[in-house]
Design goal:
The complex is a heterodimer of chains A (179) and B (794).
Chain A: H1 2-12, E1 26-32, E2 35-41, H2 47-52, E3 73-76, E4 79-82, E5 95-97, H3 110-117, H4 127-140, H5 146-152, H6 163-178
Helix pairs in contact in A: 3-6, 4-6
Chain B: E1 7-15, E2 21-27, H1 53-58, E3 73-79, E4 85-91, H2 93-97, E5 101-106, E6 140-146, H3 149-157, E7 160-165, H4 172-176, E8 205-206, E9 209-213, H5 221-227, E10 230-238, E11 250-256, E12 259-264, H6 269-280, E13 287-290, H7 306-318, E14 322-325, H8 328-334, E15 340-349, E16 355-365, H9 377-380, E17 387-394, H10 409-426, H11 431-438, H12 442-455, E18 470-481, E19 484-486, E20 490-496, E21 501-504, H13 514-526, E22 533-536, H14 553-580, E23 587-590, E24 593-596, E25 599-605, H15 606-610, E26 617-623, E27 633-635, E28 638-640, E29 645-656, E30 662-672, H16 679-698, E31 729-735, E32 737-738, H17 752-755, H18 757-769, H19 780-786
Parallel strand pairs in B: 3-14, 12-13, 16-17, 21-22, 30-31
Antiparallel strand pairs in B: 1-2, 1-32, 3-6, 4-7, 5-6, 8-9, 9-17, 10-15, 11-12, 11-14, 15-16, 18-29, 19-28, 20-21, 20-26, 23-24, 24-25, 27-28, 29-30
Helix pairs in contact in B: 10-11, 10-18, 13-14, 16-18
The structure holds FE2/S2 (inorganic) cluster (FES) (2 copies).
Chain lengths: 179, 794
């Protein structure tokens, strides 16, 4: 992990840059929602902060900033991760998908459509992260059981208590995606 | 109410699943005509999809934490590392010189705690300013605004504070000791703002103990207990629960030449506007408070806290907008909490179940705030003419509590509903049968009937009859909550000449769905679809709406919304009448058309009618009128409706007698809120209330460290809230209960949905294992101890 991340950050740095970086801002480039974006961020900047800050993708939310709530879930390649737990400089050329990149133009992802239909949204603060995890679930398992859905979002906290409607929506989305 | 201007109208009356009759009410002028039951309406009572759902599932919603303004600075607060300390001196000069820092502010007033700011004996600072004591670890001391969050954090570390560290107390029992360190040295005034009980301004205070308040006391309990044939008595303890809003408290303050604009994660834009105008000496029309999407409040985001004042002070000093957002640690320590309580409850009854006396003795702690009482639950839920209560607040060196979903009544129900179950057992009565005898409410009776059927009450075994490792049980508990109404609640409906319609009010949608509900109400009146209505809310530049606390938003703002729409309708019909050659009274509006009632084919489209307006737009303003049957009580801007809100919840649990783990398998929640407007959104809120109650029952517990005075679990890893794995099947039933009280007859749901869950689970646990747990949270260790299987040989 450390070796790849150093290699990745080296790739975006000057040819003969010093081996240590920071504490000032460093240039990074991120492939987000299919577009390569560049930003200058201090090296300790998390992916969540970089997305929300310089890249202005505020759909990704921060609820705890330490891996406890999953509000900040995005995909790295196709794996849902807590973006507050990875540094932006460590992303390298992995593809980042955020909630803003989930729909195709005006066509929502089936999970998004189902969340609306089942009112799986109250305040909506946990929702982008929930949607990312549920969409990843039906991508890797087109026939999820209720138990699979619970496992997929077991790290997500929703204080409004949308879980029952999230379960129903995700199961319905899986069905809809198949037909 | 029977003066010449009112008129008599007939309204639907009763519970839809029982029977709907009629009631006559005198109605003030200008009110929309009586609304028929939901099954005769197009949009009210239908689950119209939530208006802001699309924005929320695509990440497009703008929460306060997402607000970015040009030149915006990042503010952070310096917080006390000591649970009790006097600030001897504070030197901010190094912080001011730090690169990137634009302003430094020293906190002089703490908002939200009981009133004593600076003890008389404390000397002022060299500059003459008197600083409040830091009364809890995490109390705000100073704030910095800088161009980056890093610069702000670095500057905080450069503020030199000399503290005189004082003895402290963070334990509820220790704090009651007359020799304990005293939190407030002078008398604290004011009533309980943690919502538990309004301990009047005049109650006694000795050491850390303030009270008693004797709320609800009536009759003669001594006589009542003397008459009792059966009594039960028990002691109950509940813990501190924190709100855990997923969006932490957040503000962006912009002090500019015209006044002040604050983007705020708040439950009450208009109230905060008034509060800030007074605090900063600005006229109210120069202060604008805005909230678009709002990430949860649950009682904790009612006013403008110290952090908001700090953001404003920094913005004024720096001449730039300043963003202050609590981190999770700050959120858990210093954004309010539900007080911990101790209750001793005694009930006396006759053989037939009738209650002869209830006595309630409680103390609790709201930290450095007041209001740790247990509400009016024991006083008001069941019929009993002899009632005595004695409720005390105990101060400790901890962050101030504030209202939290069903304040007071939630811990109150945990005690009373278990005591009533215990009484039923002693009387050899079914718990539901006993409640049928002592609860006068026809609504609760119907809720018990429906819930019992759904949970399968008839298969409930006698307590402790289950054997084996996993033991199952079923329990029931009731909820009661006052139907609050904000009479100071207004809105405006506008119709433009192109037929577009919008509603404007400062009311905020905190995730409850009021946007959608208002669109349904306006659409119903104007014969349009809800999607055709534009909602402009969450902005104090619009007419002042109600707060979203006390479960009052829908009750307060839907009647004026309907009445304003009704006025627009009348104006539109008047404009269309000459064109159609009939009197306006012969016309009606439906399906986007103005038509002649007697000849429905003859008409105009809504747009064609709107095009006849003389001006580019017309507007109608309406405020909340009084309930038609009158209020039970009016208090300033608010009032209490005649009928209470409530519900009955049933829980089915499985208790693992080897690990002590309680699993809630199923909850049936039968609730009422007057006329339901959006059943699906109501179901969402009830599920949320049940889950918060379940979480309170089994997991949550803010832990203060006695040696250091710090919160040990000020995060979301060690402060456990219910997640997907803990979520049971939740079956929600919402009664349609028509009372003919307002233009919509709709009331609230959020709080009553939370109150019954913990006691229903506790009663189910008792039914499963035959031992009663009287302390929250009901942890595995507590279960094992109750079963005499303490894991550590206890
Ligand atoms: S914000 Fe990343 S897990 Fe909570
Ligand atoms: S919808 Fe509010 S936290 Fe999940």
């Amino acid at each position: 992990m450390l070796a790849t991340s150093l290699a990745a950050s080296a790739a975006v740095a000057e040819e003969n840059a010093p081996l240590s970086i920071g504490p000032g801002a460093v240039a990074i480039s991120l492939r987000v929602n299919g577009v390569v974006r560049t930003a200058e961020v201090p090296p300790h900047t998390t992916l969540a902060e970089a997305l929300r800050g310089s890249l202005n993708l505020t759909g990704t939310k921060i609820g705890c900033d330490r891996g406890a709530c999953s509000a900040c879930t995005v995909w790295l390649d196709d794996i849902p991760v807590a973006s507050c737990m990875v540094l932006a400089i460590d992303i390298g050329d992995r593809a980042v998908t955020t909630i803003e990149g989930l729909s195709r133009g005006d066509t929502l992802h089936p999970v998004q459509t189902a969340f609306i239909a089942h009112d799986a949204v109250q305040c909506g603060f946990c929702t982008p992260g929930m949607v990312m995890s549920c969409a990843a679930l039906i991508a890797r398992n087109p026939n999820p059981s209720l138990d699979d859905v619970k496992t997929a979002i077991s790290g997500h906290l929703c204080r409004c208590g949308t879980y029952p409607h999230v379960f129903a929506a995700t199961l319905a989305a899986a069905k809809a995606a198949k037909s | 109410m029977s003066d010449a201007t009112t008129q008599q109208e007939k309204f639907p009356f009763g519970i839809a699943s029982v029977s709907i009759g009629e009631i006559e009410r005198r109605v003030p002028p200008g009110e929309a005509p009586p609304l028929p039951p939901n099954n005769r309406l197009a949009f009210i009572g239908k689950s119209v999809p939530r208006f802001d759902a699309r924005a929320k599932v695509t990440g497009a919603s703008r929460f306060t934490v997402d607000v970015k303004l040009p030149g915006m600075l990042h503010g952070r607060l310096l917080r006390s590392p000591h649970p009790n300390a006097r600030i001897v001196s504070i030197d901010t000069s190094a912080a001011e010189r730090h690169p990137g820092v634009r302003a430094v502010h020293v906190v002089t007033d703490i908002v939200g705690r009981a009133v004593e700011q600076v003890p008389e004996t404390d000397p002022p600072q060299p500059n003459g300013v008197r600083l409040p004591r830091a009364l809890y670890a995490g109390a705000p001391i100073a704030a910095v605004a800088a161009v980056t969050p890093d610069a702000a954090a670095a500057a905080l570390a450069l503020i030199k504070v000399e503290y005189e560290v004082l003895p402290f107390v963070v334990d509820l029992e220790e704090a009651r000791d007359p020799n304990a360190p005293v939190v407030f040295r002078s008398a604290v005034a004011g009533s309980g703002f943690a919502g538990g009980v309004a301990a009047g301004a005049e109650v006694a205070q000795q050491g850390n103990v303030r009270g008693p308040s004797r709320i609800g006391t009536r009759g003669d309990v001594t006589k009542g207990f003397a008459e009792a044939e059966v009594t039960v008595e028990g002691e109950y303890r509940t813990q501190v629960q924190t709100h855990c809003c997923m969006e932490t408290h957040a503000a962006v303050a912009d002090w500019h030449a015209d006044g002040l604009t604050v983007y705020l994660s708040t439950q009450f834009t208009a109230g905060v506007r008034n509060e800030l105008a007074a605090a900063f000496g600005l006229p109210r029309n120069r202060v604008r408070v805005l909230v678009d999407a709002m990430g949860g409040g649950f009682g904790s985001k009612s006013g403008a806290g110290t952090y908001v004042r700090a953001a404003i002070a920094l913005s004024r000093a720096a001449g730039a907008p300043v963003r202050v957002v609590h981190d999770r640690h700050e959120e858990q320590v210093d954004s309010g909490n539900r007080p911990a309580t101790f209750q001793r409850l005694k009930i006396g009854a006759h053989r037939d179940g009738r209650l002869s006396a209830i006595s309630l003795y409680t103390y609790g702690t709201a930290g450095t705030a007041t209001g740790a009482g247990v509400g009016n639950f024991a006083q008001a839920t069941y019929e009993c003419s002899n009632f005595d209560s004695e409720q005390y607040d105990v101060f400790i060196n901890a962050g101030p509590a504030c209202a939290m979903r069903g304040p007071g009544n939630t811990p109150g129900a945990f005690a009373l509903e278990q005591a009533v179950d215990e009484l039923a057992e002693k009387l050899n009565l079914d718990p539901l049968a006993l409640r049928d005898r002592i609860d006068a409410s026809p609504v609760r009776r119907e809720e018990r009937r429906i819930g019992a059927e759904r949970i399968g009450w008839s298969r409930r075994h006698t307590p402790g009859a289950d054997t084996g490792t996993i033991r199952r049980g079923i329990g029931v508990a009731q909820s009661l909550w006052g139907a609050n109404v904000q009479t100071n609640a207004s809105c405006e409906v506008r119709l433009m000449r192109d037929g577009s319609v919008e509603l404007r009010s400062s009311v905020q949608d905190i995730g409850t769905g009021i946007r959608t509900v208002l669109a349904q109400v306006v659409a119903e009146e104007l014969g349009l679809t809800p999607q055709a209505i534009t909602l402009r809310i969450g902005d104090t530049d619009f007419p002042a709406g109600p707060p979203s606390y006390g479960s009052r938003t829908t009750a307060s703002i839907t009647p004026p919304a309907r009445n304003a729409a009704y006025k627009i309708k009348q104006k539109l019909l008047e404009v269309a009448a000459p064109k159609l050659g009939v009197a306006a009274g012969a016309l009606d509006l439906r399906d986007g058309r103005v038509f002649v009632r007697a000849e429905p084919a003859r008409g105009l489209s809504f747009r064609e009618a709107a095009a006849l307006l003389r001006t580019d737009a017309i507007s109608a303003f309406a405020s909340r009128s009084d309930d038609y049957g009158g209020f039970r009580r009016a208090m300033g801007d608010a009032a209490l409706a005649q009928n209470d809100l409530g519900g009955v919840q049933f829980a089915q649990v499985a208790v693992d007698t080897e690990t002590g783990i309680i699993r809630v398998e199923r909850v049936v929640a039968v609730q009422d809120c007057g006329r339901p407007i959006n059943p699906e959104q109501i179901e969402s809120q009830v599920q949320g209330g049940v889950l918060m109650g379940l979480s309170y029952a089994l997991y949550e517990d803010r832990i203060l460290d006695r040696p250091t005075g710090h919160v040990l679990n000020a995060d979301l890893e060690h402060y456990k809230i219910a997640g997907p794995r803990e979520t049971p099947e939740i079956d929600v039933v919402v009664l349609e209960n028509y009372q003919g009280e307002s233009a919509t007859d709709a009331y609230g749901i959020a709080e009553p949905a939370n109150i019954a869950t913990a006691p229903a689970i506790a009663n189910a646990v008792y039914n499963a294992i035959g031992v009663r747990l009287r302390q929250l949270p009901m942890t595995p260790a507590a279960v094992l101890a109750a079963l005499g299987r303490a894991p550590y040989g206890g």
